[in-house]
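To assess whether the prediction recovers the assembly geometry, we first specified each molecular entity separately, as shown.
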Amino acid sequence: MSEPVKLSVVQVGKTFKGNDGPVTAIESISLDIPQNQFVSIVGTSGCGKSTLLNMIGGLDEATTGHILIDGEPVRGPGRDRGFVFQSYSLFEWMTVEGNIRFALEKSALSKPEKQELVAHFVNAVGLSGFQNAYPKQLSGGMRQRVAIARALVYQPAILLMDEPFGALDAQTRGMMQELLLTVWENHRVTVLFVTHDVDEAIFLADRVVVLASRPGRVKKDMMIDLARSRTPNVLTDPTFAHYKREILADIREETLKVMSLERI
Amino acid sequence: MMHRKTLLRLRKDIPEPIFRLSGFLIPLLLLAIWAGVTWLGLVRPLFLPSPWSVIGEGVRQLREGILLEDASVSIYRIIVGWLAATVVAVPLGILMGNYRLMEGLFEPLISTVRYMPVVALIPLSILWAGIGDVQKILILFLGTFFQQALMIMDNVKNIDINLIRAGQTLGFSDGEILRRIVLPAAMPGIWDTFRITIGWTWTYLVVAELVAANAGLGRRIMDAQRYLATDTILFGILFIGLLGLLTDYLFKRAGRSLFTWSSQTR
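The predicted structure of the complete assembly is given in tokenized form:
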């Protein structure tokens, strides 16, 4: 990738106050992420992947190190980053369109421009005809599509996704992965995608970062050399299997380590 | 056997008419026992007047215009007292639910005060607020506000934290997030709190009208006590219960149509 670095994570560490003294969630993580790269972050639970994402999103503060976007340190949340949460987190009292439009409220665009963008993204995530539906009336997959549209409509440079498809059933999850890739190919942004599903991580990403647990640090940083646009056929590709084997071995090692620590 | 099986199953629905009618069963049974006991003369009317004499008392109050006057005075006090509590409790509850400092400042105080007996505050309330309507409303306020503020704090805390985070990533200020995200998201829960707390306001009515009131449903009951007019007392209690039931119903209906969007709405 010859793209300039968009996001730098520089020796970032995070320590929480635990019941018996401080707990180091993340020891030290450093990552340079070029513009428009799709990065998946995988790891066992407790490896600090969500914490890392929250810190990049400015929702949580790093204990040590710093996070730079275009060379500028992150100080709190901002409109250069979009966030998609596992819990959908839609505004239930607003319609699909209302939810997406709400994200544009702080932008300087004119009303017709906003309306056009909203319509465009409703369409892009395949929700035409549901503009006036309320989240309650939608399935989990459809709700998450609203959340994706809401996070993309104001055109942030970085999209942060925290296990966005974790609550969906396997079939819906597959469809959502494809949809996300289609949307991303048409609206290139830098994506950080946290998941514990290895297939999902490889299928979507240009690069998979495996985090080690307790304390969290980078265990493996691996480029995924699979042609785009990808279809589910790639899942049975030998190269795919090779990546998967390596990542699974790493995760297994980490899991065993954590289990022995906990003496299960 | 068949009915037992179909009507008593864990968490299963039963036919709507049966569900609705079942609510009348026990009151009707109690009424029947009451009527039987008094009709057979098992209890002296002074201790338990018959249902018909209680109804007769109601008719008398209605004819003489007392009932309407009492009810309107009391309803006015309930509404003003409850609204006064609500107007303060909603913003305070929202602040307490979202700023740890606010919670730290107010929660211990409110949690203590809410255990203090409102009845015991009557003498002070008279000193501070006189013997007019203001004193009655103050008592209703004190009986409602503290519980309400704590419940609204809980309602607010129960919303999905990621809604706030979404608001932050979208560039909204703290104030905007509280008003435009936290408040509407918590509103269905807050509405339930409204419904429950106005019930408590009703129960404080008699306390509020204990001293220096010349009209009101609570006043009527306290006066009747002096003359041992047990039929007046019973009628007053039942009538307050009925108005409470009506209030509850109105809140439920309004809530259902206001929050059709809520996934928690039944």
